[in-house]
Amino acid sequence: MAANAQIGAARAEYFPRIALTGFFGVESRDLTTLLTAPARTWSAAAGAAAPIFNAGRTRATVRLAESVERELVINYERAIYRALRDVSDALAGYHKTGEQRAQQEQLVAALRDATRLSTDRYQGGLDSYLQVLDAQRNLFRSELDLTTLQRQELTSIVELYRALGGGWNQ
């Protein structure tokens, strides 16, 4: 909005300026000659010549102000697109890690059952203790993977919160 106002200010340079001073724009100390024709003509001619003489500079100033406005609009649009992309990426990350965590939870539950079964088979004398240790090792790895996915899911929630405006400043 400020850049748009600068364009208006630059375009205003095309028009003559009227300035009221204590002497009404003329240099006459004597009240009898204050509004005489020579004093008025000289003042009006100087005021009208200024915009014509500066026309090239004024046109360049208007173009510069318009270019600055276009650049600021593009930067603003980029910031909006970047923010939307950040929110989209954070949502996608949250959904992805949530799905992975749910699958890993199912795997951990299955491995717990397998570990119990392996322990029961060992206690029944059908398997060696090596089978129990293998099942426990697989369960432990899966639980570590589940913990990592839970941390990633919480991190993605924080990223989503930050992308949506956060509540803190960086």
Task: Explain the overall architecture.
By secondary structure, the chain is an all-alpha fold. Helices cover 77% and strands 0% of the residues. It has 4 helices and no strands. Helix 1 runs antiparallel to helix 3 (55-123) and helix 3 (55-123) runs antiparallel to helix 4 (129-163).
List keywords for this structure.
mainly alpha; 170 residues; single chain
Which term fits the overall shape? rod-shaped
How far apart lie the N and C ends?
A: 26 Å
Strand/helix succession: HHHH
User: What ranges have pLDDT less than 50 throughout 5 or more consecutive residues?
Assistant: 41-47
**Secondary-structure-derived class:** mainly alpha
Count of discrete alpha- or pi-helical segments spanning 4 or more residues: 4
pLDDT average, as an integer?
81
Number of strands: 0
Helix fraction bin? over 70%
What gyration radius follows from the Cα positions, in whole Å? 39 Å
Summarize the biggest pleated sheet: none
Question: Strand content of the residues, in percent?
Answer: under 5%
